[in-house]
Amino acid sequence: MRFQWARKGSFLVFSRGVIPRLNQPYFLSPSDKDPAVRAHISGQSHYSAGPFYTTSTGGALATNSKLSPLAPEPSDFTYDRDVTVDIPLGTTKDPKKREKELESWEVELKRKEQELRRREEAISRTGFVIKEKNWPAFFPIIHNDIAREVPPGAQRLMYVAFASWLGMVLCLVWNAIAVTTAWIKGYGVNIWLLAVIYAIAGCPGSYVLWYKPLYRATSNESALRFGWFFLCYLFHIGFCIFAAIAPPIFFNGKSLAGILPAVNAFSGNTLVGIFYLVGFGLFCLETLLSIWVLQSMRISDQEDQRKRSRKLHELLRGLLFKNNST
Questions:
Q1: What is the value of pTM for the model shown?
Q2: pLDDT tens digits in sequence order for the chain, 326 residues long
Q3: Secondary structure in 3-state letters for the chain
């Protein structure tokens, strides 16, 4: 078979196939009747090989194209990779506002310094530490930090004793509310004044007389404070039992929300009777909780005595063993 050389574009054309080869001549068979081959020979190609296919040379494309050629890129063009961008980490504040903040900080530091100095002077004069009030959190009136100041073995007891003190406060406040209801219903103002005195004197009195001594005794293991606590706590339990019954001693017992005035109130006014009955239930619960605290204190004291006797016995055995060995 004879082949004919033909330089036409940049493709090498066989019969029924096109192989791209730059700057190479065509091998063409004269006996091939394919119309695509004849079109390539005549220069009128209808072959489409994609958007970038062309049968003309680069010079012809440059002269016949309607698009203007792109300008050459400069040698130092780096697509802004070397450009440094400053990103501010914070905005500058107003100098006057900054000055006011510094002044407020200075005032706060001076106040804390004066407080520390006052505490140091109080410690040097009396030897007692002034503890910061931290309870309740929204309006601190007392210092109470059982988790930090009480030994782990006595923390459960102190939490229950603290609940007992809060229960006493609740009983006295509810007693004042119940007696106020009775006063509004016409039972007289004298019982209301006595109930207010109970609340005003009993809430801080119970804290000072028995809860605070117990707190300090468990923190410092003071036997004297334990004795004072037992004495005051027995009086506290007696008052709770008396209030739960409310015998008709002062103003027919209506100044305390107990069971006897509750029964009498049901015959005259049901609402007052209900308030007094709730007060009776609160005083009963407070009595039971207080007895549990006292019983736990007794059991804890017995365990401490056993531990001390065991340590003393071990110490004596060690001394006797040393004497016998020598």
A1: 0.59
A2: 444 444 444 444 444 444 444 444 444 444 444 555 454 545 544 444 445 545 544 444 444 545 556 666 555 555 555 555 555 555 555 788 888 888 888 888 888 888 888 877 776 676 556 678 889 888 899 999 999 888 888 899 999 999 999 999 999 999 999 999 999 998 889 999 999 999 999 999 999 999 999 998 888 766 677 888 999 999 999 999 999 999 998 888 899 999 999 999 998 899 999 999 999 999 999 999 999 999 988 887 777 777 777 777 787 777 777 777 66
A3: CCCEEECCCCEEEECCEEEECCCCCEEECCCCCCHHHHHHHHCCCCCCCCCCCCCCCHHHHHHHCCCCCCCCCCCCCCCCCCCCCCCCCCCCCCHHHHHHHHHHHHHHHHHHHHHHHHHHHHHHHHCCCCCCCCECCCCCCECCCHHHHCCHHHHHHHHHHHHHHHHHHHHHHHHHHHHHHHHHHHHCCHHHHHHHHHHHHHHHHHHHHHHHHHHHHHHHCCHHHHHHHHHHHHHHHHHHHHHHHCCCCCHHHCCCCCHHHHHHHHHHCHHHHHHHHHHHHHHHHHHHHHHHHHHHHHHHHHHHHHHHHHHHHHHHHHHHHHHHHC
